[in-house]
Amino acid sequence: MINLAQKDVQHTLGKFLVTAMGVGMLLGIVLIMIGVYRGMMVDAEVLLGDIKADLWVVQEGTLGPFAEASRIHEDLRDTLRVIDGMETAEALTFQNLQLPKKPKPVRAVAVGYDPFGTINPINPERIIEGHPLGKDHYEIVVTDKTGFKLGDRIHLVRNDYTVVGVTHGTVSSGGDPLVYVSLKDAQDLQFSYTNNRIRSDRARGYKNRDAFMVNTIVGRVKPGYDVNTVAREIRRFKHNSVYTAAEQKTILTKNLVERASKQIGMFTAILVVVSTIIIALIIYTMTLEKMKEISIMKLIGIPNSLVIKMIAQETLLLGFLAFIFGNIFSHLIYSKFPKRVVLEIPDAWTLFIIVIIASILASLVGIRKVIKADPAAAIGG
């Protein structure tokens, strides 16, 4: 039996492929939007995974150090180290920086840590050039996304910092590039002021007590001890908020990413609906263009079921080709985005199922027109 859908598509192959490519670009954007969400989830966990801390001690009553501002005393680190069950504890700072670079500054998040401490936030596997910090002052490790190279000098506030290491894939929870400086330098950058400001503060009788503040103390628990039990003891006696690694991950994904994920989800749903409407309009237009031929088919006795099958097959083929083009399009452009885009096979298969269902629904528009076609129109036309 002649495949009517095959013959019809061959007759207008160029138009059919261009149409499928157009719809495919829309579907490709859908995949990119899903990939942006996946990338946000991955970025939110990069720093947590690199630090590998069991506990995060922050300012009481806050969701710090990422979801809210947190400032605690640096010497709390020494107190936490002697708590039963604690293996080690280290102080960390986090701050936004504008790294001077032409033609425009580079926005980054600086992590301050003790280069000689027991918890190093730099994952050695991420270093592609140079080495981690080896001094207390004037060294910086950057990510390759900043564009700085090994040996470059970066002027921050009053001092120059030499790039001693370059990492890859290190980003903050918000997707900004991460750079690393020593804790002492980080405190100087975060809590020190210009000479004019210092003279003004001295004239007012102010002292810079902030120089010994940090944003969080991270700790690791000894093997055999329950993390939640140790966390409760710290909350009870030290009057600070304490979060386990799992709780900190929840804070990042729920408080920082959830709203953005809802927005991305709504935008993705709108694109799917728009794609379905476009496919329906295309099938409807294609059906209108061959109404005379359809009427002739019905006049010579070809059953409605065969004509309906042709419309359904064309719609499904259009959806399938659009899905293929969409995947090709998304894989060609995803690496050009400034923030991480993660394309996963399960997401593509889910979209494929949605496209097939959408194509079936869209075909109903053309099928309805076929059923109502009057065979007499073939004679009168």
Automatic annotation (TrEMBL):
The chain crosses the membrane at residues 12-37, 264-285, 306-329, 349-367. Residues 18-236 form the MacB-like periplasmic core domain. Residues 266-375 form the ABC3 transporter permease C-terminal domain. Keywords: Cell membrane, Membrane, Transmembrane, Transmembrane helix, Transport. GO terms for cellular component: plasma membrane. Its main location: membrane. It is found in: Cell membrane. InterPro entries: ABC-4/HrtB_transporter (IPR051125), ABC3_permease_C (IPR003838), MacB_PCD (IPR025857). It is a multi-pass membrane protein. It comes from the Bacteria. This is ABC transporter permease. It comes from Sulfurovum lithotrophicum.
